[in-house]
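>> Question from a student workshop board

For tomorrow's exercise we were told to take the sequence and the ligand below, predict the bound structure, and bring the output to class. My setup keeps failing. Could a helper post the expected result so I can at least see what it should look like? The ligand is flavin-adenine dinucleotide.
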Amino acid sequence: MSKSEIDYLIVGGGIFGAYAAKMLSKSATVALVEREPSLMSRASRSNQTRVHCGSHYLRAPRTALDAKKYRDRFLNEHDFAINRGFEHIYAIARQGSLTSAQGFERFCDWLEVDLDRVYDDSIMDSRRVSESYKLKEFSFDPFLIANSYFRELRKNQVSLYLQSEIFNARRENDHWRVEIRDCTSQIISIEAKCVINATYSNLNSVAKQFGLPDIAMKHEYSELLLAYIPTLRDLAVTIMDGPFLSITPYGLSGLHVLSSVIYTHHFSTKDPEVKMPCQTNNRTCQVGNFNPCQFCKDRPMSAKQFMLNQAQSYIPNLGSVYVHGKLETVKSTWAVDDYRDERQTMVRKLATSPNFYSVMSGKVSAIYEMEGLFSVN
Ligand SMILES: Cc1cc2nc3c(=O)[nH]c(=O)nc-3n(C[C@H](O)[C@H](O)[C@H](O)COP(=O)(O)OP(=O)(O)OC[C@H]3O[C@@H](n4cnc5c(N)ncnc54)[C@H](O)[C@@H]3O)c2cc1C
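>> Workshop helper replied:
Here is what the output should look like for this input. Compare the format with yours to find the bug.
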């Protein structure tokens, strides 16, 4: 068994764990443990890749303001990975929408987001949407960001344990004693002054390994479609506000990612740990330690055709949609009021001396909210 002493142990190498490692390694010793073979291979890769400007969150003004607060900094610092080559159409559904065109305009005015009314009705079906607006909302490329963070963590001498998991954890005086099983099945013993838990859907499962309490969360099994859509080459579309859909460029891949409020989410649970019906068929996918959903043979039946039909009903000239694949994962949020659609960032300190923090957010640009919050004592 090899042994080492460090300041921070970060569990989870999604965008939050990777950014925390990058930030802290400038002045402290850091190790990062990630279960998958590469950084950002779960939610940080399987999402709509929107760098939100806030206009999507009409029912959650605080979330809208948070999104706007960090948007420009995120875009600037990740410029190499940002797709700015499209316009985002926000269309207001005539039926079933929780907002009106005036309500949306007023909200964007309050948020100081610039809108341009679209008068050309060749894209959206004017029988189904009342008004459409164009605004600037870009997308990020998760693969390029993961590669860049990986290089920076190596440069900053972060000890990276990929394809590794925590095997055992306990308090020992003023530090955590953590045993990690690495990719060669070797057990590494680490003495860490502080642990940061950035495992998103697995937050409660990892906290439990450290003997710490649960936080109320909600988990949803999510399916997104990845497709080549020539008609939308330089466009994104979001229908507001309620059980509708979004189609956005997936980073710089040349593909779009299609998400539907009613069809994307297959199952939902408020159990503290991820517990989905599909896990009962798969013995290797355990509560608290679920496998990647992407290629699982027991994942739920695809809602692909429903999603495509819904998209075509709003965008009659959508034309050919070449579905290239799917992004499947568990989407998690803090258990908040469903109506308000809030995506608050929370950093919870679950233990003191030695410190232990759990961090999670519903927006990638919120990585900056972690700054200045962690300490070893
Ligand atoms: C369907 C969907 C759409 C979304 N759309 C957007 C969007 O358009 N724009 C936006 O800003 N945000 C969006 N989000 C939210 C965004 O994806 C998340 O806020 C962000 O990716 C969370 O990053 P993370 O690092 O906390 O989680 P993750 O990227 O999931 O990272 C957690 C990591 O922890 C690892 N891990 C888990 N358990 C263990 C363990 N026991 N040991 C070691 N490692 C472990 C996992 O393998 C994973 O790599 C969306 C999310 C989903 C699911």
